Structure formats: C-alpha cells, structure tokens
Automatic annotation (TrEMBL):
Official protein name in the record: Cofactor-independent phosphoglycerate mutase
Domain of life: Bacteria
Amino acid sequence: MHLTLCLPGLIWPHAAATGQVPKNLPTQAIDEWLRFGNIQPCQRERSDLYRQIQSYTSLLQHCQQQAGLADAPHVFFASPVLQRVDMHSMSVSDGSNLNLTMSEAQAMCQDINAFMDDDLFHFVPQREYLWLVTSSAAIEWHLPPVCDIEGQLKFMPRPQSDNRKASAKLQTLQAELQMFLSQHPVNQQRRSNKQAEINGIWFWRDLASDTPLDANIPLLTDAPLLQQSANTQTDAPYDWSAAAAWLQEQGRPEQAILWLNPLEAPSMFGDIWGYQDAFQALNERFLQPIQQALKRGELQSLTIKTDGETGFDLHFQTKQRWAFWKRGHHFNHYLQASDTE
C-alpha cells in the first residue's frame, strides 16, 4: 500500500517574527524519510493542499448540488469567523474551529436574510461552518479562500474587483453583518456559555482543482473542506493502529490518504508550546508507527505533503532505506529555514 500523509502546519512559520523555533522534537522517523527519500520543495498555500486532495473540480458546485442549488447562476461562499484585533496583531478563526452548531448557523442565516430584507443576497447554511450566498446579479470580485486567511495576519485582505461598486458593496455588507452579529442572540448565548462568538463573515468564491483526485482512493480526515470528498471516507483516527484497522476493513487498498490537522491550529496562531505538544503526540501515534509499518512491509511507500513558504513533498520507498551513502537530512533544517521568511 502507498500512503499519502498530509500534514498542514508541519512547518513552523513564526521563527522570523518571534525568534522562536520548536525545540526537542522527536524527529527520528521524519529525519529518516528526509535522508533516504526524494524531497521536492513546494511553496504552497493551504488551499493548494486542499486542491490536491479534493475529488471534484469545484467545491462550490459540489456544495451547490448538495444544497439543491445546482441551477442557481450566481453563488459564492460565506464562512462565519471570529476576528481578533489588538494593537500588535490580528487573527481569524473560522467556524469549523469554533464548535458552531447547525442550529446556530440556521438561526444566524435566517435572521441575516430577514435583516437584509432584499432580493440581492440570500444566505443558506450548507454546513454549520460553510454557508452559500445566492445573488440575483453577477458580481466579479476575488478574496482568498477562508483556509488561507485563518491564523495570524499582517493585514486583512479586501475584496478585489475591477468594479469598484462591487468591492465597495461587499465591504459594506461585511461591516453591516459584523455589527448585526455582535448583538445576535446566538452570540449572546455563546458569551454566556463562555464560547467564542461569531463576529464576522468571510466571503470567498470557490476551491477549484484542475486535477481532482480519484474519489475511489480511501480518505481519512477531519479537514472541514474535505467532508464527503471520497467515496470511502472516515474521520481522522486516534492513532495509526486505528487507521490500519479501518484500511484492513476496506480490503487493504493500493492507495490511501491520511490528512491530520493537529499541527494546523498551533502553527496558524503562533502557539509554540501547543505545536511542541502536538508534534510529540503526532510522533507517538502516527509517525513512529508508520515508520515501523514501512519496515515490516505493511506499507511499501509514503508521501508526505505539507504547506507553507518552505513546504515540501517527500516521497519515500522502503527499498531506499539501504542507500546508506546518502547524507543525513534533519527536520530541524526546515524549521530553521522558515526563519528566512
């Protein structure tokens, strides 16, 4: 079996800004793969990683079909978010990280539609953290996907359009919704429950792929934008033993994809202690057991994909372990390399 292991946030991106690099990480397994495998540097946004794994050419069209809006001519995404701004930093968390429920999303969309009271935009909660907006008119504009603006930001992107009225309309709508949400009953209840509130809406167009993945390749993931992507799919398992057992139930396919998110949030928000703890757990539950599975021949090859300025694709085959003449590579090199951003 060939395993593709996707690890968003693997490369710590805050060395230049903070002067801090994660220390004392258990990197023996990944160091061996880096030494004997083939490394292809791949600077990529997180959305590019999603595009390589999704099994459809358009996430928007996929969601439209699920929501019964396949024939709607003008549709885009709206993601509920939490925005934090202080004197020295800005950050964004999307609804998938805020435990937003479907009933909360439905209540918000219903009240937003009543608040706007026009025929130009209509909000539909396709998932609790991923809403669709239908528009009665075509509006040309661009904003990055929500997965590319999560985390700490130097500035907040604004809608880009050749039509100034279109970009101004969206900016005004974002501002109006931010004020509306601040007093919404859902947020009042979340504040009383000491939950993070939803204080903004992020508009974006689509997540499109020119080379969608074969939907028959089994997928194990909790990634919010990959839900219902593969024909055979399950949530990310607790450890490699659980993953291997599930793959055994599927008849040990020739290929499988495992997408793990534990490093994503600490990398996005600059939580170095959280990153170190998450890496330790990732190594114990997955990296070391996968290394043993390769040595036992249960896996024949491995590809690791990650994102960021110094991201890479790493391809490793079991027969490469005998190339003893190859010089060692260390994962710490990639952590230090991020210091040059």
